[in-house]
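User: Round two. Same drill as before: sequence, then structure, for each protein.

Assistant: Same drill it is. First protein:
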Amino acid sequence: MKRDIDTQLVEWKKSEFRKPLVIRGARQVGKTYSVCRFGETHFETFIKLDFERDRTIHRIFEGDLSTEKMILELEVHANISITPGKTLLFLDEIQECERALLSLRYFYEEIPKLHIIAAGSMLEFTLGSISFPVGRISFEWMRPMTFHEFLNASGREILADKLPCISNFSPVSETIHLKIIEQLKRYILTGGMPEAVKRYCRTGSLTQSFVVHEEIYQSFLQSLVKYQKRADIDSLDHLMRSVPSHVGSQIKYTRLDPDRRIEKTKTSLHILERALLLHIIKSSDATGLPLNATASSKVMKPLFLDVGLMQYCCGINPSDVLKEKNLSNVYKGALAEQFVGQELLAASGSENFKLFYWSRAKKSSSAEVDYLYVKDGRIWPIEVKSGPAGKLKSLHIFLNEHPHVEKGYVMSPVSFERQDVDKLTFIPVYTRFV
């Protein structure tokens, strides 16, 4: 399945300022598949080392991290000659070997022409515990498949090309809009985990993708316990099933798990965040950039890894999604908000691969805007709604209190054209953030 990261990998290969590349992302989002296909199609020789499956590889990185020694032993291990500029060296599940992570620095300094990519399912747990070679590596994020990638994978390339873009908007007809919404419903049920998408594409059955969701859920749970020996599996299980139901809502630890101590819930939530199964969206007052400068650590909303896994965990009836004309009416609009947040995060997020929103807590008139989108040094508030402008009270309040913000976007499942009403711009919910 073609992924957006394919183009980025080709650009990385050609760059004269190339550094060893570390691909970050949750388990089973397709990192290994994409790198392997890239290596096999764009290099004369390709070497893949899996530090989780083959523990003997670890010995190569013990002791002296001499690049000459490591290259020699890697060639012997793989029985393949390594030629800088013609060979791709792929270090998979690199979090299993901290010395291999450290070696990236020396490869960059001493053999800069050698193409090296590293990836790992639980890499975030390691990054915070070692002295990482900052400035000597580059990062690329990989998320679940976007709606655009889903359409391409399911053989609807022409429909994928019709998706409007927020920066260069081209409206679609009502007929095409209805076809896009029909596929969007299937994407929301299938989600963007590659295995679930593959199962759906091969069988045409949404039920088959639901089977994959259960398999993925269980594998996530077991991997978390492996990397966090002291983790409370019951607490993690509870949060993984309950957090998706809080998407679109501000959360409090006591509400997430009233039967456990707050400290336990905080710990488990932090584990889920580091495993990239959960993204914490912080509230910013949006008075200026960067948004993170005024972000609150107390006011937050959750975004789950994948909309398909979300609907699975929440037990949403698939028929309710398929028969509903307006997706904002399904599950209190949380599915539509998860979808937009997931797409926004896949496009680098609000700021530095993070998401932010705006909230104001006042007894007389509290207000909240779903997302803050930053483009070309400007802030654009985004609401995921279905109603007319008159019902967008929070967005109007935000624009009144932030005169430096030119306008706000309303992403709606019922819109198929761009409509400007005062300082509001209505666009389809499936508009791409490119």
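Second protein:
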Amino acid sequence: MRTFGVEEEFLIVDPDNGSPVPLAGDVLRLHDAGPEGEAPSFRPTMAVELQQEQLEVITSPHSSLGALAAEIRAGRLYADSLAWKVGARIAALGTSPLPVTPHATATDRYDALLEKFALTAREQLTCGYHVHVSVDSDEEGIAVLDRIRSWLPTLTALSSNSPFWNGADSGYASFRTQAWNRWSSAGPTEVFGSARAYQSLVAELSGTGVVMSPDFDARLSARHPTVEIRVSDVCLDSRDAVLIAALVRALVDTAARDWKEGQRPDMVSAAVLRQAAWRASRFGLDGELLDPKTRKPLAASHVLGALYAHVRDSLEETGDAPYAKEGLQRILGQGTGAARQRQAHERAGTLAGVVAYATGVTHLVPADHQPAGKAYLASEAGTVALVAG
């Protein structure tokens, strides 16, 4: 069974007014120093991002969806427990509902980004969700990338969780996608055909003096033997994060099988895929998506059904099919993170109320969250323990 892991980016927010606060350095110093007294049984990997108002939490690779779900939840709780100690919270929001002037993290890499990309980098406070899935070789990885391209906009729609930008409703379900696509190499790619062609393009982009590392929608990881799928907003509800991970692994499995059986990839152009991504970003699941087969608008529920049918065999082989089917039905019923943020705004009447709602949902452990035999415990001291059931 292929292993998979995720990277979740979170906003660090003021619990009183909902504004992002530049406290990533303080949170990470607490993490690096370790806990006082007895060490917890669980400490995730954490990292800085471009802006000090955000924090990244990284899981270990897992073969079981249940184990990954447990670590996603525990990682959120752990990061929030550290944020509490510096007077903040973490919130799974793709963009800040409230206006913010971000504070850049001082590293050589980020300094170079700010110098080169100017306002694009200075304004870039967005939180994404990246899924890594193991592959046997670069050739298999490229075969996978070539065969999952048409389905990536559906993941954008499903995970959409960034309707607000700079204090206003953007009109988009995933405005993070719009902001992210200002990077010069962001977005969909053409079919590569081989690992050599992929590496040649990466080298050519590097040679332009513009691109430091390609920001493709999906790419080979430079550090791990994985493909990295990067189109999703950070998910408001951790159940949605688990669902996206399950679907991504199933897409990778299905694509690798198709490649081994000699099936050619869909040769749809990157230009058309960009239109599919725009539609997904604009409407989420509240409008029509482009059908990956016909490239014509189709009801979002039908496109989700087509995605499930496409990966059903892989989901059944891993035992993830019931969780995936239930998750898709749940999101169609209750709405994406973007829809739920807008509902919270209607109830609260303020953007600060949206952040307060999102902060609560970020750490909520619904009774139906766990796909398989894991449990969470939190001690009185707030230390999160991951406990095998």
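The two ends are 21 Å apart (CA to CA).

User: Perfect.
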